[in-house]
Write a structure and sequence with these properties.
Helices cover about 0% and strands about 45% of the residues. The protein is mostly beta strands. The N terminus is likely disordered.
Length: about 375
């Protein structure tokens, strides 16, 4: 068994054992919610429901619609403004990863390792993958890019499903079962390979550049796991990511150089804007870093152990969901709570996503809740 395939063991540890306390009876109790006097207006504007989300969902906002998927294999698009269902399709099997979409094509991966591509709800084609997949596919430029838990990247033609190329990084160590990084910067495909942000030629699958976000730490391979985890933050030429349980860093993609890196243990990805980068650590301590320097702008410890999602930065707020379905709107300037809105009581399973002025939150029970802060 190769070391990468033995990553199916710490795959393990990726999403489970390494999170230790997550299944322990000694897990700290969530910090009680403080009373909040709303400082901004905001309300739920529509809701919908799928059959539950038990996998690492990525929600896509494209062309005024939200594209979502459920564990049972339903893939659907909803008008962001009204909540009207634009289309719905079925992958035909339970999902392990999804969804990626360019507005026309939507791609998901099943628990049988099948990549399934739908065109506006109609199943277009499928392709068998060689490994389990937890990272949402990326659809761009009439191509579908997929990365397995072994961090091998495949490119397919979105129109007919032809496999175009495969990229395999030599000597990749044990990898996480947690969603990794796939993104785009201009004409370059961005891929997380270990703790490095890698730029690939999307037409050929060849390496253009490789910038480490951090260096491995720990005394054994499990402790040294530091894969980049989704979601990725891109603002202009700045691309930022979290290395699992290790650091947060930003790369200047135009010069392919590391801008800054700061220690910051956590399992969830990050969000931000041109001025600030936001994220929560393993204890759910929220930190804002200055995007230019990496210096700390503020910390918030009022949401400790609440199981925070990755954040969304929008307007004057940064938005987190938590494990009890609460949605927290914090001030981007100092981290104080401006507004809190409920969902259905089950965990928020993905970073909140913005389309226009509408923020969508998806819960473990399959609830879709659209909010409009004002």
């Amino acid at each position: 068994m190769s070391r990468t395939m033995s990553g199916l063991v710490p795959l393990l540890l990726a999403g489970l054992a390494l999170l230790g306390a997550c299944s322990s009876t000694d897990k700290p109790k969530p910090t009680p919610l403080e009373s909040v006097t709303p400082q901004i207006a905001g309300r739920q504007v529509w809701s919908a429901r799928l059959d539950g989300v038990q996998f690492p969902l990525q929600v896509v906002a494209r062309e005024g619609t939200f594209v979502v998927a459920s564990t049972g294999g339903t893939v659907a698009a909803f008008d962001a403004q009204s909540g009207r269902e634009a289309w719905r399709g079925e992958a035909g099997s339970r999902l392990s990863a999804g969804v990626g979409s360019d507005g026309r094509f939507a791609a998901v991966v099943t628990q049988n390792n099948d990549l399934v591509v739908l065109e506006r709800g109609r199943k277009s084609w499928t392709a068998q993958l060689s490994s389990r997949t937890t990272t949402s596919p990326l659809v761009a430029g009439e191509r579908v890019f997929v990365m397995g838990v072994d961090r091998v990247v495949h490119a397919f033609d979105a129109l007919d499903g032809r496999r175009l190329w495969t990229y395999r990084r030599a000597g990749e160590p044990l990898t996480l079962a947690q969603p990794g990084v796939l993104g785009v910067y201009k004409d370059t495909l961005l891929v997380g390979q270990g703790a490095s942000l890698v730029g690939l030629d999307p037409l050929k699958g060849t390496l253009r550049w490789d910038v480490p976000i951090t260096s491995p730490r720990g005394t054994n391979e499990v402790e040294r796991l530091n894969d980049l985890v989704a979601p990725l933050l891109r603002v202009g030429d700045m691309v930022c990511a979290r290395a699992f349980q290790n650091a947060v860093g930003c790369v200047a993609a135009n010069t392919t150089s590391l801008r800054w890196s700061r220690l910051g243990g956590g399992q969830q990805g990050i969000g931000g804007d041109a001025d600030l980068v936001f994220g929560a650590d393993a204890s759910d301590r929220v930190t804002a870093w200055k995007a230019a320097s990496g210096d700390t702008a503020w910390n918030n410890e009022r949401l400790l152990h609440r199981g925070l999602s990755a954040p969304l930065s929008t307007g004057r707020t940064v938005v987190f969901g938590d494990a009890e379905g609460q949605v927290h709107f914090l001030s981007r300037d100092d981290g104080k709570t401006l507004l809190r809105l409920p969902t259905d009581g089950s965990a928020v399973v993905a970073a909140p996503v913005l389309s226009g002025t509408t923020v969508l939150v998806v819960t473990r029970n399959g609830g879709l809740f659209a909010f409009r802060p004002e």
